[in-house]
Each structure stands twice: as structure tokens, then as C-alpha cells.
Amino acid sequence: MLKEQLYFVKKANLYEIYTDAEDTDTFAVGYIREIYPDFLLLETYDRTGNFDGFRFILVENIYMIKEKTQYLNRFEAIEPASATLPTWDAGMEVLDKIIFWLCEEHILFEMETFEGEILVGYMESYHSGVIKIKHIGANDLKADGWAYIMRDSISEISIETCRLAIIK
Fold it and tell me: Three-state secondary structure along 65-84?
């Protein structure tokens, strides 16, 4: 999606955000909290209208945004969550700031890479474009060693989701 088009969305509206062109039935629902040059911060809600965390989504992965759909009409009564996040200067490299924040605050996260890999864990350090992650295993939800990933392979980061609350 063209980045310029994102600046026309209204943050007070609920949106369907589509990032997987091969699975058009899958999308995120939420309020757009902030639009950065490369990432969009989405306050998400599950199918029943409950708050389901925040997603930092790479803008270039968004291929469609919908608003005022029949599906979204079910959620008319949803008010934006009162949860707060730090404010990052849109003119700076926001992803680096998010990574450093996750490291400093030791926040459980879920990350998706361009290759479709899903990682869950805690960011331990970040140096020269490499992130060290204390990895949580998908099967037993226990610490499963370390993962090292390049910063530029991140397509999405989620925090405070219902799934992550179960792991905590």
C-alpha cells in the first residue's frame, strides 16, 4: 500500500488491516494509533470485541484497508483502549526505538519475519542490526534457548495480546 494513502485514515475509526494477500479472510481489526514512515501501530481487538494488544505492522506489507464494513459494524460500541505506549518521534528510526524499548522493559512479544517465521520471547539485546531473543517454545511455552535475528527481517511485532497473556 502506498504510504501516502495511510495519512488519510482517521484514527478515530475502526479498520480492517490486510497483510496476507494469499489469505484474504485473515485481517486485523483495530484503531490506528500512529503512522510512522515504515510501521503502523494498530490497537487490535479480537472477534468478540475484546482488546487484543498492539501490533507494529510494516507498512509495505499492508495491501488493503477497509472501514465501515458490515463486519466492523458489529464493533461500533468499542471504545479505544486506555492502554498507553511510549511516544516515538516519527522522524527517527522507529523500529530501532521499539526494539530498544522492548529490551529495556523486558516485554514479552511475538514477532513475524518476512519468511513467515513466528518468534515469541523477550528481546535481550540489540547490536549492529542483530537482535538476541530469549526464545519461548511454541509447543510447551517454556524458555527454549536463544534466537538471533536481523532487524531488517521483521515484518510485524505484537505485544499485550491474549495469546501472550497465556504465556506470561
Answer: EEECCHHHHCCCCCCCCCCC
Q: Closest Cα to residue 58, out of 130, 123, 6? A: 6
Q: What is the pLDDT of residues 59-80, one digit of tens each?
A: 989 999 999 999 999 888 887 7
pLDDT digits (tens, 9 = 90+) for 18-60: 998 888 889 999 999 988 888 999 999 999 899 999 999 999 8
Model-wide pTM > 0.85: yes
Yes or no: say if 111 and 162 are a contact pair by the CB < 8 Å rule: no
Specify which residues 22 forms β-bridges with: none
Dihedral pair phi/psi, residue 73, rounded to 5°: -60, -25
Give the residue ranges of DSSP H helices in 18-144.
Answer: 70-73, 94-105
Instruction: Give the C-alpha separation, 19 to 125, whole Å.
Output: 28
Residues contacting 66, CB < 8 A, separation 6+: 15, 16, 18, 27, 72
